[in-house]
Amino acid sequence: MQAFVFPGQGAQFTGMGKDLYESRDESRELFEQANEILGFRITDVMFEGSDEDLKQTRVTQPAIFLHSVILARRIPDYKPDMVAGHSLGEFSALVANGTLSFEDGLTLVYKRALAMQKACELAPSAMAAIIGLEDEVVEEVCESIDQVVVPANYNSPGQVVISGSMDGIDEAVARLTEKGAKRAIKLPVGGAFHSPLMEPARDELETAIRETPFNEPVCPVYQNVTALASADADVIRKNLVLQLASPVRWTQTVKNMIKDGATSFTEVGPGKVLQGLIKKVDRGMTTQSA
After folding, report:
1. Residue 55: what pLDDT?
2. Domains and CATH numbers, the chain
3. Which residues are CB-neighbours of 19 under 8 A, at least 6 positions away?
4. pTM of whole model > 0.85?
């Protein structure tokens, strides 16, 4: 069975999507439609902007979404048996399996990006990658700290990203290093994604999600919040609302997709980060870029 997976924030690069724009009329039309929906020429930032320009959440998220969704439309005989996306990538996956229209998906992604940026400005917060410890150890240390600090991304066995207040993250990094983490490093991100500090953004996004039509998908999506397959539009909607302030269970998602019959994974979007994570879950799994 063919699984298609879609990357999240961090996969952006200067010049992304330019080849797609220049090589096919249909792709160019979608990019131009996106410029109109967003109210600014995101294509200019994607094709010519600096790394700094592309790092702005309001740019990064729609840029990666566009690259992924437009690339998916160019895959010959595109018939996914299952899809999943990492954080932001879940929105790309939901367009790729027909749950959301291109226009609605992009509009939600942009609203999500703006809401997250606003939430980040409310309180200083951070994220850190913890490498080389069991998930349970990371969870126990986070629970023992009297600050907001939680596991945010279960990326692969032995790699968990934590998220929380500045003080909470600093304390957790120190304690997890003492516990034997190979690496415990703060990440260059705008704030504490997938933590309770994103609740204001979640509340804002919930209204938009509830007002957006969700269609019956052509194949199941494995969602970040549960790591389980769903083809029910109401369940998908509910999990998407919860996603922003809940952990991304990527390790568990990949394991469940393999258990349910995935024989190969195609990463659709910029970069190869997800292929690396999938190989850490199952070294023998076939992975490729779209």
Report:
1. 85
2. 2-121+196-289 (3.40.366.10), 122-186 (3.30.70.250)
3. none
4. yes
